Amino acid sequence: MTENKGFYKRLLILTLPIVIQNLITTSLNMLDTLMIGNLGEVQLAAIGVANQFYFLYSLLVMGIGAGCSILIAQLWGKKDEEKIHSVLKLGLIGAIGFALVFMMIGFFASETIIGLFNSDTEVIRLGSDYLRISIFSYFVSALSFVYAGALRSIGNSALPMWGSLVGLVINGVLNAILIFGLLGAPALGVSGAAIATLIARIVECLIILTVVTLKVKPLRLSSKDFKHIEIPMVKLLYQTALPVVLNEACWGLANITYTMIYGHIGVNAIATTQITSTIINLFTIVIFGMAHASVVIIGNEIGANREEEGITYAKKIIRLAVVVGIIMAITLAVLAPFIVQVYNVSEIVRNDAMKILIIYAIFMLPRVYNGVQIVGILRGGGDAKYGSIAQGLSMWLVGIPLAFIAAYVFKWSISSVIFLSTFEEVLRFFILRRRFKSNKWINNMVKDMA
């Protein structure tokens, strides 16, 4: 009983800061959108398009950070600080390399990039202004992404949360001042939003780097750590990070495809999915909080050659995920009628949104299970590749084709299309459950390191 209490306490300590950090990010991003939206639709579109470039960049860098976090979690279980330094160093070099490439492209080809997404001359002008300023934040973002993943892997999920909190509060305050010209400052509009973003990300990075340098010895790098590159470690990091990057890219492209399918149904369908996706994203924060904590706990045990304990902990996490899934499903189903009343939309959109939220509640359990398995347990066990394949195949061979047939052939309503496509979660559940029961997901990637 005491052991169970200690385990769940550890899981909570890891999960809660991640959930809070993601919740803060989501809330302030929504606030960001509202502020820019007050300037006009053109300004909102300009920043939205410019941020597509950042989305692509962050996808690659977060993949590198996730690959590092998987290896560091196992190395932390092994208590091999020297190799942790080696992985962290390579992760930083890779992330900074991507940052510099994207910064050069974004600065010198900003108008071309914005023009790929929108042909409106004003959107291109404003989007280019935003991109040329915000692009300088990519360097510090690379450091923050990699260090955040590494910190979580050694059990410190609080520091990234506090860095993110301070940075995002600064972003919100500076947005209000610089966009609208409050407190005697000039009203800079879109450029003001870019400056606020740049300053906020610099502050967030400085907080993380300062605390790591002063207090987190396992992640404290020195100049001698960068004197030589270990080729075997480069290959291992590449093998670990690549499936994560491909998984994120596959997921992002699938979401774009779903949006195109929903757009074929009509304007009301797009409005409906905008409402429901915003709401379901709030529930998803809890899922990914548990998943990222699972990487640390499972990775630590596997790296320490305690495979049986890793399996035991994984089973406990799954049982907890089931309980959390049931609670979230009931909560969503009960609140759905009240949530949709908040939006000033037509009765058709409101009814469709309520139906879709009920559908999400019905499929919440497999959704939670799949998220915790793919992003958490399998990655922590060193089996990121299998989770990526399972998600990619179920999306592109089941979910998207079903949605396409329902929308284009049968011409069903948006709620019916989403109901049919959500069966991809059910298929993914059975695939992942079989993999988990086989124990083939256990892969100690650091076992033979000298």
Automatic annotation (TrEMBL):
One of its GO terms (cellular component) is plasma membrane. GO terms for molecular function: antiporter activity; xenobiotic transmembrane transporter activity. Belongs to the multi antimicrobial extrusion (MATE) (TC 2.A.66.1) family. The chain crosses the membrane at residues 54-76, 88-110, 130-150, 162-187, 193-216, 236-258, 278-299, 320-344, 356-378, 390-408. InterPro entries: MATE_fam, MATE_MdtK, MdtK-like. Multidrug efflux pump. It is found in: Cell membrane. One of its GO terms (biological process) is monoatomic ion transport. This is Probable multidrug resistance protein NorM. It is a multi-pass membrane protein. Keywords: Antiport, Cell membrane, Ion transport, Membrane, Transmembrane, Transmembrane helix, Transport.
